[in-house]
Design goal:
Elements (H helix, E strand, L loop, with lengths): L2 E5 L3 H12 L4 E5 L2 H11 L3 E4 L8 H9 L6 E6 L4 H9 L4 E4 L4 H18 L4 E3 L2 E4 L4 E4 L2 E4 L2 H11 L5 E3 H8 L5 H17 L5 E6 L3 E6 L1
Parallel strand pairs: 1-2, 1-3, 3-4, 4-5
Antiparallel strand pairs: 6-7, 7-8, 8-9, 10-12, 11-12
Helix pairs in contact: 2-3, 6-8
Length: 222
């Protein structure tokens, strides 16, 4: 499950926004000022930060500047009522990924968050050679003997976890919590279905995904 850090001193509206984002399947951690936000960034390692600018202790620009000194990859969205050109340009100078004026529609913010995470997945250029099969997570594809099969987002995420751990048992709950965010019974059944689909798509006979009862899965190359 992707983790989002929301840093804003407007408690009432932040709680409403937090619930809205959580309803979309994200984990949201809240900080009421910039100083706490910076501490939580270091503690919880979020995937994306929603950052107000006008806050006590440290303003959003100061927080972003501090983070960018050591972290160029974290996604930062500024959410603010400071809409003049100078502020917007400064936000982008600090390598902010987006600058969203208040007020905004929560649905629009969710669309931007979803799009950003999806583009991050497709921008990854890691490739895995599994036996004679080329697995490209960035293209969500498997290529074997010139024939290419497409994978869904979930299938890509699952196979990437197994491909990173060839020959090692991957705990079932690890996959469930990484891909779905929790290890509920319904998600466990969904994992079974996705593993079945992945096995069918892996036409290379040298590749095997074995289910180990009460343990997890192991991908092996013969």
């Amino acid at each position: 499950m992707k983790k989002i850090l929301l840093v804003d001193d407007d408690l009432k509206n932040s709680m409403l926004l937090k619930r809205f984002i959580e309803a979309e399947g994200y984990e949201v951690v809240y900080a009421s000022n910039g100083k706490v936000g910076l501490e939580l960034y270091r503690d919880v390692h979020p995937d994306l930060i929603l950052l107000d600018i006008n806050m006590p202790e440290m303003n959003g620009f100061e927080v972003a500047q501090t983070i960018r000194e050591t972290d160029r990859r974290i996604i930062i969205f500024f959410l603010t009522d400071r809409t003049d050109k100078v502020d917007r340009l400064y936000g982008f100078k600090l390598k902010g990924n987006d600058y969203i004026p208040k007020p905004f529609y929560p649905e629009e913010l969710i669309a931007k968050i979803n799009e950003r995470f999806e583009s991050d997945i497709t921008s990854q250029d890691i490739e895995y050679l599994l036996g004679n099969t080329l697995f490209r997570p960035n293209l969500a594809s498997l290529t074997y003997k010139g024939e290419t099969h497409s994978l869904s987002v979930r299938q890509t995420e699952i196979l990437a976890i197994l491909a990173k751990n060839v020959g090692k048992v991957v705990d079932r709950d690890t996959i469930l919590n990484t891909v779905w965010g929790d290890s509920s019974y319904a998600n466990s059944l969904a994992l079974n279905v996705q593993i079945t689909y992945i096995r069918k798509l892996l036409t290379d006979p040298s590749i095997t995904i074995t289910s180990l009862k009460k343990k997890g899965y192991i991908l092996t190359i013969n």
